[in-house]
What does this fold into?
Amino acid sequence: MDAPLPTGPGTSPEDALDAQLVERVRRGEAGAFDQLVARHMRRAFGVAYRLLGQREDAEDLVQEAFLAVLERIDTFQAGRSFAPWFYRILVNRGLNARKARALRVTEPIPETAAARSTAPDREAERSELREELRSALEALPERQRTIVELFELEGFSGPEIAGILDIPEGTVRWHLHEARRTMRLALAPFEAKEL
Amino acid sequence: MEELSRDPAADPRLAAALRNLDPPPAGEVDWERLRASLRARAELPLARRRRTARLRTAARWARVVVPAAAAAGLALAVQTRALRPVGGPQSSGRVAGDIGAGRPALVDEVVYASYPAQEVDRLISGRAEADALLLAAVGEEPARL
It folds into this structure.
């Protein structure tokens, strides 16, 4: 028999379905786990890819995060949303993997200034913009970068990001504000060019 | 300055620029393979969970059933003992054993025993020793009466 749906105020149908699946996973139902995976797999991959930048690494991270869910599912508090809890596991593991990789690999520095002065055509300018943005994004403090990626690219709201990163919503907004300011500065030279 | 008390409005230009940086290769991902791989890797932990769930269910039942069974057994034992006929006056050894336990069989022993009238008078009047009646009942020396 299925567990009763959470009925608290603000409980969305999505959260309620997740809660039912989690309860069944707790009892070891393989079908429920498979459904939970199917529901969150694509978005999880998107977040993982943003964090790690490699398809294979992102797939590994998604698998690790789901298996970690199985290990820790008894610590998940019934009545709370599954998604922020799950993405917190994913993002924390992704950030750790990114740190570990940063220690091993020195990424090439983009040739921004030289490219800007010599790029003659539109495609070159686009390429230049991408490099400028990439450089600005990578220069952001790690938390700001994660927040701007989750907000701008993966479509998480401020409260959701606060839940994922376990920080106050106001802190999320402040980081987002700062990150956007930095990114807009990087975009400013290209503003008039309608790229 | 952007309002910090609520989520900022979407910035489509910035979002598009960021999206073009490294678009996730979602089309290259074999979702079914990823899902199947997860199913396979989850088999063992899920089997452990099923076993734990079964044990928990059994323990929950045991918490209810065992005390109930114990109570029923006790009640049955008490009932059986209550229905068993008490011993007759013929067994002095049995009565001796019952004295210490304060069993009601002793009264029957005394009632059914035959003692000389004088001794009975002394017993009834209280001139005998306190335990003389008991000693007489279990066949100890009544001469001191």
Summary: The mean pLDDT of chain B is 74. The helical segments of chain B are 12-21, 31-83, 92-101, 105-112, 117-125, 132-137. The radius of gyration of chain B is 44 Å. Chain B touches chain A at residues 1-2, 4-8, 10-11, 13-15, 17-22, 24-26, 28-29, 31, 34-35, 37-39, 41-43, 45-53 (CB under 8 Å).
